[in-house]
């Protein structure tokens, strides 16, 4: 059972409709937090992702986990909507303790393994706006409320640690820029927040078994191991709850300032805080990637989960 380390605390998870964002919201709820779950997909309207998951479902999962989930439809590229969201949080709660910037939505726009001159600029720039501009807009409006009390936490959710992304090209110039930028934003926020006793961390999950990834492999969370017949390295994958528990662990740690400005993975934090994935394992996907998958070795997760 998750410790109720977030009782009385308020979190905003921007981009909580599905995947990592949904489970970050849920695990913060399991720790007792009130969580504002935002996104563009509602029961009345789907975003351009055209997926069935909704922010209302996420809020209900937060409440069922032991917190209080509040769904708010927000397009984080529209400053007026984000401003209105933060004013609402201030009016209703008078505080903000955790901000999670998880907005992404770029998967349908990504073009893999093609040089820049063969990539459509409109899709590439839209991807960057969704991945980077949304995080800046949200931080601009939310951080004044966050720093009202010392100890605020900002999590930038990306793909790949700073160390990994510095030496590995991430398949496309636009995707590469997006993921490097998100990590750099966490470093920038760490400089802004330090005088206010706040902490900013760049956090990456490993190979995430999101709803979309499971659909791509034609499996569910219950039988995900079957996908290793198609892709043996999928054995190192992790559920979204794993990165959710990583955020909950950071949020509940009174000494989290030691992570300020750093880039970490869910697997790294699991070794420090002792949490596990849903199956009781501790997958360390990024170490596995460097030591097994990237060198072209046969899939073997022994010692990595």
Structural key phrases:
single chain; about 300 residues; alpha/beta; Rossmann fold; seven-stranded parallel β-sheet; 7 strands
Which class of secondary structure composition applies to the elements?
A: alpha/beta
Order of helices and strands: EHEHEHEHEHHEHHEHH
CATH topology: Rossmann fold
How many separate domains?
A: 1
Task: Describe the protein's architecture and organization.
This protein is an alpha/beta fold and 305 residues long. The protein has a single domain (10-210, 240-290), classed as NAD(P)-binding Rossmann-like Domain (Rossmann fold, 3-Layer(aba) Sandwich), CATH 3.40.50.720. β4 (98-101), α4 (121-146) and β5 (153-157) form a beta-alpha-beta unit. It is globular, with a radius of gyration of 18 Å. 42% of the residues lie in helices and 11% in strands. It has a 7-stranded parallel beta sheet with strand order 3-2-1-4-5-6-7, with helices on both faces. The mean pLDDT is 96.
Compact overview of the structure:
This protein has helices at residues 19-30, 55-65, 79-93, 121-146, 162-167, 173-193, 211-217, 240-251, 266-273, 285-293; strands at residues 10-14, 34-39, 68-73, 98-101, 153-157, 199-204, 263-265. It is α/β, with parallel strands linked by helices and 305 residues long.
Helix and strand topology:
Blueprint lengths: L9 E5 L4 H12 L3 E6 L15 H11 L2 E6 L5 H15 L4 E4 L19 H26 L6 E5 L4 H6 L5 H21 L5 E6 L6 H7 L22 H12 L11 E3 H8 L11 H9 L12
Parallel strand pairs: 1-2, 1-4, 2-3, 4-5, 5-6, 6-7
Helix pairs in contact: 1-2, 1-8, 3-4, 4-6, 8-9
